[in-house]
Amino acid sequence: MATKKLFIKTYGCQMNVYDSARMADVLAPLGYGPTDDPAEADMVLLNTCHIREKAAEKVFSELGRLRRIRAAREARGEGRTVLGVAGCVAQAEGAEILARAPFVDLVLGPQAYHRLPEMVARLARAGEAQLDTDFPADPKFDHLPAPGVRGPAAFLSVQEGCDKFCTFCVVPYTRGAEYSRPVTDILAEARALVAAGTVEITLLGQTVNAYHGEGPDGSPWGLGRLIRALAEIDGLDRIRYTTSHPRDVDDDLIAAHAEVPALMPFLHLPVQAGSDRILKAMNRGHDAAAYRRIVERLRAARPDLALSSDFIVGFPGETEADFADTLALVDEIGFIQAYSFKYSVRPGTPAAGLPGQVAEDVKAERLARLQALLNAQQVAFNRACVGLEMDVLLDRTGKKPGQLVGRSPFMQPVHVSAPAEMLGTVRRVVIDAGQPNSLAGRLVACPGGAPQGPQRVPA
Ligand code: 5AD
Ligand code: SF4
């Protein structure tokens, strides 16, 4: 029974969403259960993101707000809320947080959350702020309890950290060196999730396809092999992975896309830019032609594969001609969804000191042009889905009564009229409408047979 209330606010990537769930798992034995109201929480954790300047700045304004909420609760005589900052801002700026916001009780990096119970105990004993931003020699995964119930679609961290050192990126510094969890641990966590009702698992890692965890035979397994082993788990209908790096797309992973029906035909494969000069300056380790070839091979393996990507505009030295190369690549490849950002200077990264920093208004103007093109591609894809039949994992209730919302194989939200008992199941749906950000469809009366890929409905 939960006797205390825990509120966690998560910023940034899916790895943080997973980490937040794991922090809740670690705190459950101490009596903490979830609340979605910080005003009644005994502990509030901000799980922060350091990837761009804006993301990092949000933390300090949120801390100011939480301090006032905490004071009001204390004045009501409801006890003192423990206030913690976790995640990548904590890792990168731990000491600065305690200096700028000395009212914070806990500061812990992404590699330290298995030590939360100790930190809470020390805080209670000593009454002073606790800071833990060490990279422990023993990986945190060895100390985590079994996952709690996660719902129909769950994340599973298989790889963490990054050794690629793209010149714009803080991740190698905040998340540390690349680490792959052993296969046996991952399979056990996946089985526990499926036993608790999960039917779709997204494998997570900063460069997830660099996965090379130790297999049961003692040899390193790649991501393709891991996916094949996961696909054997009864009741696991869907597998995804994110975020991948073009350099680590190997033959076996491409083959897995052809051979494993549970591996969904949607891939987030960040390219960042279309200019070879800029890709080199970014230290991405591949050129635009290599990216095009990888996409070609993936599409040959899985013809219905749809792609999403990340882009940075206004990297130092980016000219109008470089940017035109990005637009040309987008135009040629076609993405059904994307994230695009203005380059944000991150202190301590190599690109921060490069000459040719691009003016903010130029970045804004390029971003607008890129986003117009990417949006048009997304809208066109959603419209082209009208008339298709596809498997939809109904994983949420909708806003309207009698409505459920699900995910298509391509991660589009799909609104469907369906009874509540269907929540958490994969159903065959015909798509009737394609909006810019979602689809609407209706259940196919008698689908029968095994789940299939998207199909044109016979006229
Ligand atoms: N500026 C802008 N975008 C960045 N990203 C990472 N670092 C920066 C930065 N300094 C983007 C990349 C990456 C995504 C997670 O965030 O596109 O793929
Ligand atoms: Fe950052 Fe590059 Fe590593 Fe991705 S591959 S986490 S962008 S350094």
TrEMBL record:
<dbReference type="InterPro" id="IPR038135">
    <property type="entry name" value="Methylthiotransferase_N_sf"/>
</dbReference>
<dbReference type="InterPro" id="IPR005839">
    <property type="entry name" value="Methylthiotransferase"/>
</dbReference>
<keyword id="KW-0963">Cytoplasm</keyword>
<keyword id="KW-0808">Transferase</keyword>
<dbReference type="Pfam" id="PF04055">
    <property type="entry name" value="Radical_SAM"/>
</dbReference>
<keyword id="KW-0004">4Fe-4S</keyword>
<dbReference type="InterPro" id="IPR020612">
    <property type="entry name" value="Methylthiotransferase_CS"/>
</dbReference>
<keyword id="KW-0819">tRNA processing</keyword>
<feature type="binding site">
    <location>
        <position position="162"/>
    </location>
    <ligand>
        <name>[4Fe-4S] cluster 2</name>
    </ligand>
</feature>
<feature type="binding site">
    <location>
        <position position="49"/>
    </location>
    <ligand>
        <name>[4Fe-4S] cluster 1</name>
    </ligand>
</feature>
<comment type="similarity">
    <text>Belongs to the methylthiotransferase family. MiaB subfamily.</text>
</comment>
<comment type="subunit">
    <text>Monomer.</text>
</comment>
<feature type="binding site">
    <location>
        <position position="88"/>
    </location>
    <ligand>
        <name>[4Fe-4S] cluster 1</name>
    </ligand>
</feature>
<feature type="domain" description="MTTase N-terminal">
    <location>
        <begin position="4"/>
        <end position="125"/>
    </location>
</feature>
<comment type="function">
    <text>Catalyzes the methylthiolation of N6-(dimethylallyl)adenosine (i(6)A), leading to the formation of 2-methylthio-N6-(dimethylallyl)adenosine (ms(2)i(6)A) at position 37 in tRNAs that read codons beginning with uridine.</text>
</comment>
<dbReference type="InterPro" id="IPR006463">
    <property type="entry name" value="MiaB_methiolase"/>
</dbReference>
<dbReference type="GO" id="GO:0046872">
    <property type="term" value="F:metal ion binding"/>
</dbReference>
<keyword id="KW-0479">Metal-binding</keyword>
<dbReference type="GO" id="GO:0005829">
    <property type="term" value="C:cytosol"/>
</dbReference>
<dbReference type="GO" id="GO:0035597">
    <property type="term" value="F:tRNA-2-methylthio-N(6)-dimethylallyladenosine(37) synthase activity"/>
</dbReference>
<keyword id="KW-0949">S-adenosyl-L-methionine</keyword>
<dbReference type="InterPro" id="IPR007197">
    <property type="entry name" value="rSAM"/>
</dbReference>
<dbReference type="InterPro" id="IPR023404">
    <property type="entry name" value="rSAM_horseshoe"/>
</dbReference>
<keyword id="KW-0408">Iron</keyword>
<keyword id="KW-0411">Iron-sulfur</keyword>
<feature type="binding site">
    <location>
        <position position="169"/>
    </location>
    <ligand>
        <name>[4Fe-4S] cluster 2</name>
    </ligand>
</feature>
<feature type="binding site">
    <location>
        <position position="13"/>
    </location>
    <ligand>
        <name>[4Fe-4S] cluster 1</name>
    </ligand>
</feature>
<feature type="binding site">
    <location>
        <position position="166"/>
    </location>
    <ligand>
        <name>[4Fe-4S] cluster 2</name>
    </ligand>
</feature>
<feature type="domain" description="Radical SAM core">
    <location>
        <begin position="148"/>
        <end position="380"/>
    </location>
</feature>
<dbReference type="InterPro" id="IPR013848">
    <property type="entry name" value="Methylthiotransferase_N"/>
</dbReference>
<dbReference type="GO" id="GO:0051539">
    <property type="term" value="F:4 iron, 4 sulfur cluster binding"/>
</dbReference>
<feature type="domain" description="TRAM">
    <location>
        <begin position="383"/>
        <end position="445"/>
    </location>
</feature>
<dbReference type="InterPro" id="IPR006638">
    <property type="entry name" value="Elp3/MiaA/NifB-like_rSAM"/>
</dbReference>
<protein>
    <recommendedName>
        <fullName>tRNA-2-methylthio-N(6)-dimethylallyladenosine synthase</fullName>
        <ecNumber>2.8.4.3</ecNumber>
    </recommendedName>
</protein>
<dbReference type="InterPro" id="IPR002792">
    <property type="entry name" value="TRAM_dom"/>
</dbReference>
<dbReference type="Pfam" id="PF00919">
    <property type="entry name" value="UPF0004"/>
</dbReference>
<dbReference type="InterPro" id="IPR058240">
    <property type="entry name" value="rSAM_sf"/>
</dbReference>
